[in-house]
Design a protein that fits this description.
By secondary structure, the protein is an alpha+beta fold. α9 packs across α13. The protein is elongated. Bound molecules: adenosine-5'-diphosphate. The site of adenosine-5'-diphosphate (ADP) has 21 residues, from α12 and α13. Adenosine-5'-diphosphate (ADP) binds next to α12 and α13.
Length: 420
């Protein structure tokens, strides 16, 4: 048998009045009537099950709105979130769930309009409970049509995400708080660093004057003792003490000079007086002065020089650079070969100082050029950790570059390139 119309979606309550039902009653096909009755019973049960399911859901507010936005059905979840009993709210407009400001800006109407046009509208926002308290809701409004596509109303599914929102809010506040604390701490640290730099600057200036006069006094005493006859019983002892004193004062002066240079660099007042000179000649002069130190450290000095590497640089500052690199090689690689090279490249004059000492771990290579930074493996050797910081600044202020090639146990090679 063929139906002229599809009745499969017809609600059970409507079936008893449909013409096909009577036509079927008139036939003697009892099996068909039985199966139709079974289907009606099944549909009724399924509708009931669905209604019960929706009604008992408590984690979601699920309800219908009619085409004007009046509440048409209500479930347990809706009652739980919003606080209204079904008989209090059914028939009332859903704008009751919105704040005064939302109602004034016609937000509920906007939501329905969007669902009408797009079939579905979704958002998160504050909603108001019956007792006036707020909750953070995730809302989905879906347009519901009849079988011909005419608007029947809207289904509305709402979830209470207040806790999630609060957690996120707490997290945001905690994060903001942390950021503020970090900012304060950074300010404190900056202030502490500034005070340290100011202190070092003042201290090094204050130390410099008495040190200079002490050195002068020692040198005068040295001259006077030289004039004493060799027969004088104290001449030898005094001369030795004075030369130890001069050496100590020299190394103290070196440290104070480094501190002074650091504060000059910090203040951007490191001065340069450029003149033309031959880098190789300067390196030779310096190495000559290092003879005794090299001998004491049992270092063998090897050299590889281009005869002429002329450029216009600040001679005493470049001298400081080379002295720093050679002193470090002697300090950190005693008893090894040190190779000093000068070379003329297309656009730069190059000085290299390579030793066979402990080398530097790759992860520490960048840090050795920072202020007061020393590598743990070489900390048993004295120093303030300023030499390479000053060296790098001097080279960079000449528009040059300093690099280091090194690996642990394989020595270190410092390469300075100065523009010609
Ligand atoms: P200082 O020698 O006073 O510590 P520097 O700024 O000259 O300061 O050097 C920084 C650090 O770099 C040193 O403490 C040392 O750990 C490392 N370093 C410098 N030169 C060498 C070298 N030739 N071999 C191994 N390590 C070195």
């Amino acid at each position: 048998m063929r139906f002229s119309k599809d009745y499969t979606n017809v609600r059970p309550s409507q079936l008893s009045v449909c013409p096909i039902y009577f036509r079927l009653m008139a036939t003697s096909d009892k099996d068909l009537i039985k199966s139709l009755e079974a289907r009606i019973a099944e549909l009724t049960r399924s509708e009931e099950r669905f209604r019960l399911m929706v009604n008992t859901v408590i984690d979601y507010a699920i309800f219908m709105l009619d085409a004007q936005g009046n509440v048409a059905s209500w479930n347990e979840g809706a009652k739980r979130f919003k606080g209204y009993e079904a008989d209090e709210i059914i028939g009332k407009h859903f704008s009751l769930f919105y704040s005064k400001e939302d109602v004034e800006r016609k937000h509920p109407q906007f939501e329905l309009q969007m669902a009408l046009e797009e079939s579905r509208y979704e958002e998160e926002g504050w909603r108001i409970r019956k007792d006036g308290t707020r909750f953070w809701a995730s809302v989905v409004i879906t347009r519901v049509n009849d079988s011909k596509g005419n608007l029947l109303g809207f289904s509305k599914v709402t979830r209470d995400l207040t806790e999630k929102k609060m957690n996120a809010e707490q997290l945001r506040l905690a994060y903001e708080n942390l950021e503020k604390r970090i900012q304060l701490r950074t300010k404190d640290l900056e202030a502490a660093l500034k005070s340290r730099d100011e202190f070092l600057s003042i201290a090094s200036h204050e130390l410099k004057t008495p040190l200079t006069s002490l050195k002068l006094q020692l040198q005068l005493s040295q001259k006077r003792i030289e004039k004493e006859p060799d027969s004088s019983p104290i001449k030898k002892d005094l001369a030795r003490s004075l030369s130890v004193g001069v050496r100590q004062v020299n190394s103290l002066t070196g440290l104070v000079d480094d501190l002074l240079d650091v504060s000059r660099i910090q203040q951007g007042v490191l001065e340069f007086h450029k003149e033309e000179f031959n880098l190789t000649e300067l390196v030779e002069e310096i190495l000559y002065r290092f003879q005794e130190e090299l001998k004491n450290a049992r270092c063998v000095m090897l050299t590889k020089f281009d005869s002429e590497v002329k450029g216009k640089w600040d001679k005493s500052r470049i001298e400081q650079v080379i002295v720093n690199l050679i002193s470090n090689a002697i300090k950190y690689a005693p008893g090894t070969e040190i190779l000093v090279t000068t070379r003329k490249e297309t656009s730069s004059g190059v000085v290299e100082v390579a030793d066979q000492g402990p080398g530097i771990e790759p992860s520490k290579v960048e840090t050795i050029f920072d202020r007061f930074t020393r590598v743990a493996s070489t900390k048993n050797v004295g120093g303030l950790g300023l030499g390479l910081f000053i060296t790098k600044r001097i080279v960079e202020l000449h528009d040059g570059k300093i690099n280091v090639e090194t690996s642990p146990g394989q020595g270190a090679k410092f390469i300075v390139r100065l523009p010609l």
